[in-house]
Specification:
Strand content: over 45%
Structural class: mainly beta
Number of domains: 3
Radius of gyration: 42 Å
Shape: rod-shaped
Length: 175
């Protein structure tokens, strides 16, 4: 209330009935993976944090909304595997037999990607062959075994890379 003098010098009492409308506040949470974006009110966010925006309420006052954004990480891992060229390595249902990096994506316990890389190294299998001729009354000792008949003989030894080294004595011929 306030009192004023009117034009005749008399008191004029004015009463102000003031209503204060409340500011509305609300918040909500969202969770994304670190390789995703969350678009809120036209703005793409990808970092964890609290983001506020102000909207007019139905009473004409501010309405403040807070987004609490959580960002879960993407997990990455890798492992190495070595095989020989006469082998294959089955990973996630696919047989691989060439050197390279093979990636696959799985869903982690947080619902985000888990990227696993297989680093595959394929070592060669070595092969070698030679011919030997002997007389009919002789023998040829190869790998500790005396051979006296013509033919092709084969044996396998481990190489320095732990892969097979196949040596074939082709055409032991007898004259």
């Amino acid at each position: 209330m306030d009192t004023f003098k009117n034009q005749y010098g008399c008191d004029s009492i004015v009463t102000l009935n003031l209503s204060i409308n409340p500011i509305k506040t609300s918040n909500f949470s969202a969770t994304i993976c670190s390789n995703k974006l969350y678009v809120w009110n036209g703005i793409a966010q990808n970092a964890a944090g609290a983001y506020q925006d102000t909207f007019p309420s139905y009473l004409g006052c501010d309405s403040i909304v807070t987004l609490n954004l959580n960002v879960n990480p993407i997990k990455t891992s890798s492992f190495n595997q070595t095989i020989c060229s006469n082998q294959s390595y089955t990973w996630n249902g696919i047989a691989q037999n060439s050197s390279g990096a093979y990636k696959d994506t799985f869903v982690s316990f947080l619902g985000c990607d888990s990227i696993v890389t297989l680093n595959l190294l394929v070592n060669p299998v070595k092969t070698n062959s030679f011919s030997q001729t002997i007389c009919a009354n002789q023998s040829f000792t190869w790998n500790g075994i005396a051979q006296t008949t013509a033919g092709a003989y084969k044996d396998t030894f481990p190489s320095f890379l732990n892969c097979d080294s196949i040596v074939t004595s082709i055409y032991l011929s007898i004259q």
